[in-house]
Structures are given as structure tokens and as C-alpha cells.
Write a structure and sequence with these properties.
The protein has helices spanning about 20-35, 45-50, 55-65; strands at about 110-115, 120-125, 130, 135-140, 145-150, 155-160, 165-170, 175-180. The two termini are about 55 Å apart. It folds into two domains: about 15-80, no CATH class; about 110-180, no CATH class. Helix 2 (about 45-50) packs antiparallel against helix 3 (about 55-65). It is an alpha+beta fold and about 180 residues long. Helix content is about 20%, strand content about 20%.
Length: about 180
């Protein structure tokens, strides 16, 4: 039995829809556009012109930083006041931060190789797996597997859309995981 063909002409015109449906659609549209209202507030044009006229790049930047943002509460810092420079964070080893940060750059590692110490008997949903390098990963896909592997090599590889998969030596099963430590 063939399925009926639906088209946009099968929908009733807006004027024929119930009043409550029209009101609900208007409320949804207003709620979606509300965050954009802050962007539509006027900008301090005199302040922008004053900053643009400065020749010194550092002074110009400080001037722009001192301008209040549209819709922002609070008082802008006084002109000539500079924020203290942020302390440089220590750079972790490439493998140390693998899986903890969701931001991606082309130079990031795509996988790490380590191993599981001792007898690995598989995993169950939400189980935490501690690897030899000290990282702890949790199974998040609800899968389970019964394995009997002695100190298997493990590869954690980056998948699509921020996913990570744990692959075990001599096994074709790979649970989706997320790093917890």
C-alpha cells in the first residue's frame, strides 16, 4: 500500500490555525530573539571615535577595552588603568591533557597509546577504566564486553563530534568513553 504524499499546501494557512497556536508561535519567536535584543542597544559612538583617533596601538587597545559593552552591567575601568598580565599556565605534555579539553586544533593528538596493567576482564556500562599512564576513562555508550586479556595495549582515539573510543589489543570491541581523570 503506497504512502500518501504530503506537501506544504496540505497545511492550513496561518489565519486558519487556532488562536492559541498563533500565540504559541509568537511567544516562541519572541523567546528566541530575546538574547539578540542586547546586541541592538546603541553603542557609544563618541568613545569609539576617541579610541580610533589614538595612534599608539597599546593605548588604542586599552581605550577600546575601557568602553562599556552594550547591555553590560557595572562600571567600565577608568581610562589609563591596565589589567595585570595573566600568568602563563604551565604547558602539559601532549598526552597529559588528551580527552580533558573539547576544543580542537589541527595539531592536537588524534590518539594515545598506553596499556592496562594486570588482567583486564572487560567492561560494563558506566565503568571506569584506569590506564597505566594514570588516566581514568568512563564507558559512556552503555556497552559491555567480557574479555580475558593480560596487560593489553590500549589505544584511545578521537572520534567524530568530540567522541573518544577505547581500543584493546586482540579485541574488535571499542566502547565510547570520556575522560574523568
Amino acid at each position: 500500500m503506497p504512502l500518501p504524499q504530503l506537501s506544504m499546501s496540505a497545511l492550513p494557512p496561518v489565519s486558519a490555525r487556532p488562536r492559541w497556536a498563533q500565540a504559541a508561535a509568537a511567544a516562541a519567536l519572541a523567546a528566541a530573539l530575546h538574547p539578540l535584543a542586547a546586541l541592538a542597544q546603541p553603542v557609544d559612538g563618541d568613545g569609539l571615535r576617541r579610541c580610533r583617533a589614538l595612534a599608539d596601538p597599546a593605548g588604542r587597545l586599552a581605550c577600546y577595552d575601557a568602553l562599556p559593552l552594550p547591555g553590560a552591567a557595572g562600571v567600565a575601568p577608568a581610562a589609563g588603568v591596565r589589567a595585570a598580565p595573566a600568568a602563563a599556565a604551565p604547558t602539559p605534555s601532549p598526552q597529559g591533557g588528551f580527552g580533558l579539553d573539547d576544543r580542537r586544533s589541527p595539531s592536537e593528538l588524534q590518539a594515545i597509546d598506553t596499556q592496562f596493567n594486570g588482567l583486564f576482564q572487560g567492561w560494563s556500562p558506566n565503568e571506569r577504566i584506569r590506564l597505566a599512564n594514570g588516566q581514568v576513562w568512563q564507558v559512556v555508550d552503555g556497552s559491555s564486553a567480557g574479555l580475558y586479556l593480560q596487560s593489553p595495549k590500549v589505544r584511545v582515539r578521537r572520534g567524530a563530534l568530540g567522541a573518544y573510543f577505547m581500543e584493546f589489543e586482540n579485541s574488535n570491541r571499542s566502547p565510547r568513553v570520556r575522560r574523568v581523570e
